[in-house]
Write a structure and sequence with these properties.
- By secondary structure, the protein is of the alpha/beta class.
- The protein has one domain: 2-enoyl-CoA Hydratase, Chain A, domain 1 (Alpha-Beta Complex), CATH 3.90.226.
- Helix content is about 45%, strand content about 15%.
- Strand 2, helix 1 and strand 3 form a beta-alpha-beta unit.
- Helix 1 runs parallel beside helix 3.
- The protein is globular.
Length: about 260
């Protein structure tokens, strides 16, 4: 199956490979991308022959998160349209987080903002040492709303308190230390490491693997409908504000946003 932005392939072992295929914009999300990826994941989820889902990307970056052209257009949307957009994005992360089979993220490049959401919604994440990461939303007058339940669960509230506020860039070793990556490896070792993990999973009972996913969700804090709706409303509200539009506009115009005072040393 081939979509314009999402590729799907399945091998004889039952490994379904979903590839983000929008490398010209660093695999950023827009409405079409979100719809295609969600539908592809639904297709995989209902396929009883799939034992493992591998999520990977084409190009230099794993994913830069939301496409800012798409976000900028939100200023012209109604409140209802903004909330519906945000709900579809929240639905994407929920679908990936609750896939019935084990999921593995192959992180061949940097992941920012919503791109981090895709990584932490997978069960196992392997990334290259050169990759960079950041929770960048506040730089643009936004908040990491719909990814926050998953990201905070992965890194803990203490790390979230730092990285949500600073929007600082951190490397793969820090991503491994705080719980975003399980392993950080050299470029040439990425595919072998990912394949090794997949082979380990395939040696195990598929129904037991699925039951383990249900067990983990039962033990941990669940992202329920109320939380998804609330986080969706929060991003829908803030991305239509003057501050968010100023931040996004400053990004495109390659200037500092108005809240940065250049005269302060």
């Amino acid at each position: 199956m081939t979509n314009s932005f999402i590729l799907l392939d399945q091998d004889a072992r039952g490994v379904a490979t979903v590839t983000l295929n929008r490398p010209d914009v660093h695999n950023a999300f827009n409405d079409v991308f979100i719809a295609e990826l969600t539908q592809t994941l639904e297709t995989v989820a209902t396929n009883a022959d799939v034992r493992v889902l591998l999520l990977r990307s084409e190009g230099k970056s794993f994913s830069a998160g939301a496409d800012l052209n798409w976000m900028k257009a939100a200023i012209n949307n109604t409140v209802e349209e903004n909330e519906a957009d945000a709900a579809r994005l929240a639905g994407l992360f929920h679908r990936l987080d609750t896939m019935p089979m084990p999921t593995v993220a192959r992180v061949q490049g940097s992941a920012f903002a919503g791109g981090l959401g895709l990584v932490v919604c997978c069960d196992i994440s392997i990334g290259v040492k050169q990759a960079k990461f950041a929770v960048t939303e506040v730089k643009l007058g936004l908040i990491p709303a719909v990814i926050s339940p998953y990201l905070s669960a992965a890194i803990g509230p203490g790390e979230a308190r730092r990285f949500f506020h600073t929007a600082e860039l951190f490397d793969a070793e820090d991503a491994r230390r705080i719980g975003i990556l399980h392993e950080a490896v050299d470029d040439e070792a990425l595919d072998d490491t990912v394949e090794g993990v997949i082979q380990l999973i395939l040696k195990n009972a598929p129904e037991a693997n699925s039951a383990c996913k249900s067990l983990i969700r039962a033990l941990g804090s669940r992202v329920n409908d109320e939380i998804r709706m609330d986080t969706g409303r929060r991003i829908a509200t803030i991305r239509a504000t003057d501050e968010a539009q100023e931040g996004i506009g400053a990004f495109f115009e390659k200037r500092s946003p108005s809240w940065i005072r250049e005269d302060v040393s």
